[in-house]
């Protein structure tokens, strides 16, 4: 099991009945065209990593899941979003999307859980030399993380961080709690993204109850 994790786990299967009718929209006029296109680029990149050239054939639910992760990835560049996505390893495309999304969040916590209820945990970390080696290796060794001309994980990660830094003051002016950050990003991007934020907050951890990074649990 692979998680993209910032705080409490929440399986994506909670969405089963909620988004099958989701229809992504690609408008001529977005509230902020640049942010809309960046979020859309992240979502398409996640789908491309999981499905390659078949990314346009996926279900509306799969597109929504990619959109939800894309919004979470971007919002996490402003403030850590206290929710997680999880899947069983046998769901290969979902696992690939999670792996790709995790590679875009520098502070993401990633777990491998061979059992549903692990009784022990081992922290996996590499030293400074290994991290430098990985930086050198990232471009030539991760062709699967490149979709067309969208770039590698490193390129997209840098673009997200740079854009988020430029917008940080504007986004945080609407509130600093995680739910407020998510809503603010979605509102600025416009079009389908406010709907994505609604579903993210509805089916995920109740972020409105998470202030200053404190955890919340579902009843």
Total strands: 2
Determine Rg (CA atoms, Å).
Answer: 17 Å
What proportion of the residues is helical, as a percent range? Answer: 40-55%
Percent strand: under 5%
List the helices and strands in order.
EHHEHHHHH
How far do the termini sit from each other?
23 Å
Described by the principal axes of the CA atoms, the overall outline is: globular
Number of helices: 7
What class, by secondary structure content?
A: mainly alpha
Largest sheet: 2 strands, antiparallel
Structural account:
The structure is a single chain. The protein is built from seven helices and two strands; from the N terminus they run E-H-H-E-H-H-H-H-H. The model is unreliable at 5-22, 141-150 and 205-219 (pLDDT under 50). The two termini are 23 Å apart. The chain has helices at 33-51, 60-76, 92-102, 128-141, 153-172, 178-189, 193-203; strands spanning 2-5, 84-87. The longest helix is centred in the C-terminal third of the chain and has 20 residues, at 153-172. It is mostly helical and 219 residues long. A two-stranded antiparallel ribbon has the order 1-2.
Task: Provide keyphrases for this structure.
219 residues, mainly alpha, globular
């Amino acid at each position: 099991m692979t998680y993209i994790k910032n705080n409490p786990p929440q399986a994506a299967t909670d969405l089963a009945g909620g988004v099958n009718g989701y229809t992504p929209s690609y408008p001529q006029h977005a509230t902020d065209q640049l942010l809309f296109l960046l979020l859309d680029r992240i979502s398409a990149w996640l789908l491309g990593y999981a499905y390659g050239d078949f990314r346009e054939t996926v279900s509306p639910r799969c597109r929504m899941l990619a959109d939800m992760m894309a919004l979470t990835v971007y919002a996490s560049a402003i403030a850590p979003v206290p929710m997680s996505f999880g899947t069983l390893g046998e769901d290969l495309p979902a696992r690939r999307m999670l792996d790709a999304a995790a590679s875009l969040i520098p502070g993401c916590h990633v777990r491998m859980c061979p059992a549903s209820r692990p009784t022990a945990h081992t922290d996996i970390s590499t030293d400074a030399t290994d991290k430098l080696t990985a930086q050198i290796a990232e471009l030539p060794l991760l062709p699967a993380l490149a979709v067309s001309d969208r770039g590698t994980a490193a390129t997209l990660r840098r673009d997200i961080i740079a854009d988020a830094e430029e917008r940080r003051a504007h986004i945080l002016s609407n509130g600093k709690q995680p739910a407020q950050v998510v809503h603010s990003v979605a509102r600025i991007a416009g079009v389908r993204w406010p709907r994505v934020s609604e579903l993210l907050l509805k089916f995920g951890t109740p972020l409105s109850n998470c202030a200053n990074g404190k955890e919340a649990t579902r009843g």
